[in-house]
Amino acid sequence: MVRLITHNLLACHVKGCDSNNFPLTFSDAEVEIRETEYNAEFLKGFFPKLEWKALVDSARQLGDVSLPETPPIDYDSNEEFLRALHHVLLEIHVQEGSMICPNCKHVYRIQSGIPNMLLAEHEVAGR
């Protein structure tokens, strides 16, 4: 499933596309909200791994504006912030659409919640 927790880790890997290849931009995204059990400790531990601006921009592309431009200093004790982060990272599921590289414009299709990250042989780095 394409959730923003995994999207925040994805970059384009087309041969020669090694700059401005993150984050992938959503296009024609169909979103489904699925409630997930809240786990504050998980969020606190995962938070330092996030590319914050990419997460906020991606959430806004999908119509969610609940995250602030910059995270609060007290993020690990701010319950309202952690719940908004939980929703954005774990409850927003992209079911259909595409992710597009901002550099080379390669399109990664999403069907039934599954992103197709496979590349054709001529697109694979190192070939």
Automatic annotation (TrEMBL):
GO terms for molecular function: protein heterodimerization activity. CDD domains: Trm112-like. Signal peptide: none annotated. Pfam families: Trm112p. SUPFAM superfamilies: Trm112p-like. GO terms for biological process: rRNA (guanine-N7)-methylation; tRNA methylation. Interacts with TRM9. Belongs to the TRM112 family. This is Trm112p-domain-containing protein. It comes from Tulasnella calospora MUT 4182.
